[in-house]
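Project outcomes to date are best conveyed with an example. Our students and postdoctoral researchers have been running inverse folding experiments weekly, and each run begins with a structure described purely in tokens. The record below, which covers 155 residues, was selected by the lab manager from last quarter's runs and is presented without edits.
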């Protein structure tokens, strides 16, 4: 994952509500999975991609709210994905990652629809407001931030 992509995710996280955070985690997982798949013979890069993808899965598991019925089904899917990733790691093969990509892509599609309907406010309060498209550089669009003091921390 490039620094630009990381920066984009960081900005999106500061502006996201609960369902958008799930979408972002799925997208991050897919980026890290792609890093592992593209590693080829580079075992260190392959394992690093899997480790970061696993961290996304762990965060998704920890964010499940078991007061709602889909949480148990999602947990089973997440555990299955983790097992497939472990199999890929033990065999040093990207082949099992295809099923992981398919499952998470389907979930991402569903959660994107949920996040479109979710009108709750962002989780993080007191963050900088991002205005995209107000300034332009040569050949690029620049985001501007309005300064609000302490960047998300309450003092």
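After processing, the design step wrote out the following sequence:
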């Amino acid at each position: 994952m490039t620094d630009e992509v990381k920066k984009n995710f960081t900005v999106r996280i500061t502006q996201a509500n609960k369902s958008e955070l799930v979408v972002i985690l799925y997208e991050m997982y897919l980026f890290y999975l792609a890093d592992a798949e593209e590693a080829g013979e580079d075992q260190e890069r392959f394992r690093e991609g899997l480790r970061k993808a696993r961290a996304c899965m762990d965060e998704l598991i920890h964010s499940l709210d078991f007061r709602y019925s889909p949480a148990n089904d999602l947990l089973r899917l997440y555990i299955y994905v983790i097992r497939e990733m472990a199999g890929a790691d033990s065999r040093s093969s990207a082949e099992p990652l295809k099923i992981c990509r398919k499952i998470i892509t389907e979930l991402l599609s569903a959660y994107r629809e949920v996040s479109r309907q979710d009108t709750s406010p962002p989780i993080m309060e007191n963050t900088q407001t991002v205005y995209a498209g107000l300034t332009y550089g040569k050949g690029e669009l620049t985001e501007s931030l309005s300064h609000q003091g302490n960047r998300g921390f309450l003092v």
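The chain has a mean pLDDT of 83. The helical segments are 3-14, 18-37, 43-62, 70-91, 97-117. The training component of this project remains on track.
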